[in-house]
């Protein structure tokens, strides 16, 4: 049996009963149908960047999505429409779009994982989310045994969520089509930290390659680039709370008002001000020395070590501020 620690960025996880490498769409659908027909449990795995697998592993088939390839049309006026396979590396795709003279993905540079994982999590960073540029998603419906195409409006996108995340594995992403703008001017810079690093004001536009370069530098400084540390990136999402609850937080707590009247605050700030510190350890697990949200494998961590550290953070934040942190990572065979 194959150790899943070899296929996750946290470098933990026990063995899988069976591992299938799906390199084409036909192989992917066939592997799913075969397992479903016998009642075998399935774990769909992309880049392994957003998953924590238990030390006992996974009793079933792990299907690793390794499909590659894209097709695109670029028009001088309307921009580019790009259909990209689920198994393609996300950051390589972002670089590809910039090389083709296309804008709108620059702020999402450096996020680990695959293209197929992007709509599931509605990945986002530095003031922008991937849902802003998705035109449609093709997915295999395991219940109806057929391929479906979802327009962006049908994907039920919200903060770090989508219909695909909420479906409990019903839909498996096959490819994603993006509508991008032709040009070298970025989307408006909406994040204060990024604007400050670029030397511009919030709302300004900047050369796309300069934005990518700055975002990658910021992510590296925080230990959020794949290969910097063995982590899953941000372990917790930023809490979205009521305006009343936000008013109860200390004055210095970050607050980002949302259109629906609720307020987003910073999980990192909550952790640091509840008593969690960079470098804190639990067995072989550690909070990154670069960023408090990056729970990492310091070299010999078990999944239990990482969960214990996450529980400590969650309990301290709950005790100090009455806010329950929600994990961004997917748990397999283990609970927070």
Textual characterization of the structure:
- By secondary structure, the chain is α+β, with helices and mostly antiparallel strands.
- The protein has 3 domains: 64 residues, Uridine Diphospho-n-acetylenolpyruvylglucosamine Reductase, domain 2, CATH 3.30.43; 114 residues, 2-Layer Sandwich (Uridine Diphospho-n-acetylenolpyruvylglucosamine Reductase, domain 3); 103 residues, Uridine Diphospho-n-acetylenolpyruvylglucosamine Reductase, domain 1, CATH 3.90.78.
- The protein is globular, with a radius of gyration of 20 Å.
- The mean pLDDT is 94.
- It is 26% helix and 26% strand.
- The strands form 6 sheets. Strands 6, 7, 8, 11, 12 and 13 form a 6-stranded antiparallel β-sheet that branches. A 4-stranded mixed β-sheet has the order 1-2-5-3.
Descriptive keywords:
Uridine Diphospho-n-acetylenolpyruvylglucosamine Reductase, domain 3; 21 strands; Uridine Diphospho-n-acetylenolpyruvylglucosamine Reductase, domain 1; globular; 3 domains; Uridine Diphospho-n-acetylenolpyruvylglucosamine Reductase, domain 2; 6-stranded antiparallel beta sheet; alpha+beta
How many DSSP H or I helices? Answer: 9
- CATH architecture descriptor of the largest domain: 2-Layer Sandwich
Q: Strand percentage, roughly? A: 25-35%
Q: Mind telling me the C-alpha Rg?
A: 20 Å
Portion of residues within helices: 25-40%
What's the average pLDDT? 94
User: What order do the helices and strands follow?
Assistant: EEHEEEEEHEHEEEEHEHHEEHEEHEEEHE
Largest beta sheet, briefly? 6 strands, antiparallel
The CATH C-level name of the largest domain is Alpha Beta
Number of domains: 3
Helix/strand-derived category reads alpha+beta
Unreliable segments of 5+ consecutive residues: none
